[in-house]
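Tokens for DALD3 protein. Go.
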Amino acid sequence: MGEGRPGVAATLRALNGALGRPGALWVKESGARNLRHRDFLAPRAALSAVFPGGQVPPEAVSAVPSLRGPAVLPLRVCRQTPAGLAVQVHRPEAFQRLLGPLPGPPVTAAGARTGCVVLHCPALRSPAALRPRHLRSVLLAEHLAQLLRAQGVDVRLVPALSPERSWDVLRQLRICWPSGSGGSSLTDAISALKAALGRCPCAAACEQGPGTAEAVISKVHLKSFVEQQGLLGYDPNLDVLLVTERTLQSLAELQEAVLQCPVSDPTALPVSCFPSSSCCSIVHVVNCEEEFQQQQLDVLWRILDPGAHTASQKHLVCGPVKVTNPSSPIGADQYFQLRKRQMYEASVMKYGELAQDEAWTEVIDTLTVAAIRFEMLSTAHRSQITLDLENSSISTKGTKSGAFVMYNCARLATLFSTFQRAVEQGTYPPLPPASELNFSCLREEGEWLLLFNYLLPFPEVLQQAAQLPPPSKGIRITANTETVCKFLIQLSMDFSSYYNRVHILGEPFPHLFDQMFARLQLLGAVRDVFHSALATLHLPPLSQI
């Protein structure tokens, strides 16, 4: 976070330090009702655990408003209340620091890279047609890649898409995934793995039996290796794996990705973001139905290529995708076409003949992609997703949908294009520089809600969404991959409520310009947050809807 920009974490650290306690005593408020009275609270129960009778020394209370720091919010007052110790922020100054001119660019991915993660999605190797459960793991891996890259992490996506197969549904969903057919280096890697297999004490050669669909090169005893190494978290049914050419190709692709990772100082990796201290971490993003097969591949790679990279393998497992009342198994392409038809019908119902214009084709395509991405990503990856294909929740009205988010993003675009036309027509003067704006005009409850709950914590929301904390034991990890979708849905709801209640572009009277300009500066920052968050989902902002 750049110097001068306040942050939630830094403010909470300063508040805890002011009470002489390193523990987390304070919480940030987020509900509109509580924000009318306080912005941060040290609850009475937490205070009672560290101060006799829950009474904080008066000198500590009086010192809180004087807290200062480059990333600490300006504090106005601290007082004892029945709920605990309550703090209010000096709001005009907070608006100024968050919406005013930036002191300098923050240190981001454009600076130093902080390691490499290989995200492996076995669903893209499925010989059968892709199904919704495959889409879930692919979309999750791509979203996670965008989040990690935004934090300066180098990411490799595996496997490359084979050019011999049609990937139309991925293109329609605007999934950005590398493609390629391998080359001599991949052939060399497969040969090296075969040689390692021949030297492996856990492996035994196999003869090709009649009627076998694919040549079995060797059989490897995985269970004995897992027991000898004391590996935790693996399925107890892992036993003998029949190794084929395709198995070795999968490992070779992973090895190629590891070799492409830039060499970096392992100690530079943020421990909170990566599942190991290796300079290259491998995360298998897999649906629960393929977890066993991926564990087999994991152990085989450890056997054939022992090293820090194979020891760093972790598994991010997606829960099942249940389709209600399917007349037959539904493919990913059918799922996309069904949602697209439903989005078209919902748009015609809302906008009439206008939605049937050719210019709306791109809009409906984008709304469909948004609807599917939010349907797949707004649920915690460990949980089951239920797709009701008959009674669809896909609409332009539902506040929990991707279409609702895109609709509110388009409303912001319309607001600023309307303002720009009015400036060109001489109705309003141009928006002044941020340093000349009067942010004390921002007194509406919804304005503080937008700043305090969304603009302020947004950089930290992205950081938390990109974290891959190491498991306490075993190989499974969890990630907060639903965070961005939920953040955007809640932002859309609060923005929509504010926008429906407050008239932004008022009458062109000079005495009203200060408030209008301050509001435009605030909503311009809200628009930027929408755009940045949508970019992690590969969703372009809509200029109209």
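The chain has three domains: 8-89, 116-261+277-323, 332-536.
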